[in-house]
Amino acid sequence: MTLKLCKAAKKMATFSSYFFATATLMVSSSSAFTFIPRQSTSSLISKQSFKVSSSQRRPIQPASRAALAARSYQQQRQVQHQLHANNNDSVVTNMEDVGFVLLAGGKGSRMKADMPKQFLTLRKKPILHHSIELFLETLPKFLSDNGGAGPAFLVLVMDPSYQPEYQRFIDLYGADRMSFANPGKERQGSVENGLNKLVEMAGDACKYVAVHDSARPLVTIDEILQVVTDARDTGAAVLGVPCKATIKQSDDGVLVTRTIPRSTLWEVHTPQVIKIEALLRGFAKVEAENIDVTDDVSIIEALGEPVKLTLGEYTNLKITTPEDMEVAEAILEERHGRDN
Question: Which of 29, 78, 20, 140 is nearest to 313 (CA)?
Fold first, then answer.
């Protein structure tokens, strides 16, 4: 575990340098937040920001670097848990009316692998399996142990060529709990296909849908409970974290148009939890008006309805590059060691 944490420590230090370039960003105000097209933004954080001259440089021992990474991770979780406790005295323990749509139809071209990233091995099993097991085994057991139940349904959005291989999961968990949906040309189409299948499976039993990217295998039960709680209060909620990086907007990709105040920016994660009735109305609107959206709560924003920002964890990273795999391995090994 120590060696892998050592390798990942430098990448954790420059986490923003490769992460925010692919993140969806929101500008937050006191009453609402606004989606920013990510193709017009770029982060100023780079490895250059952390360089020092040879006369200033002090060697960091591998063990110290690993301990620093682990300690930083644990301190961050403690602070976030305290913030959650302050903001929510009671979180949901019953999720029988929540269905999950798990997106696994991406190509993963930036990973430079010979298969989509969701099928790459992370801690002895494919990335996708972490989310399937969380939603159909770990989370239901946690809820049951705490007097609750659910979630009852999972729709796996996946290319038809991979579905036969994953039929065994439907056989294991039951066709009344899990089903396939085909991906669309874009994320928006994939979510809509998954939502329609969920409505077909669950009928009126599901009031909320939680949309999750399979490339985020590190989401925690605490995060899920918080975002579902907020969605029930507001109608829609999205996990996110305050931006660490300085963000510049450029209209032409060459010259800076403006610097966006970092204090108002949030990096958006998944799950994104939305009332099904509202999302169906939102899909009808964006299709009728040809509105392009890149995440799910943007559809609710198009309706002019509120979306709650739920404080998540920086460790809920989206695996996009080979470097992300190393960081994810280190985080999982640290969690595994702590739980033991």
Answer: 78
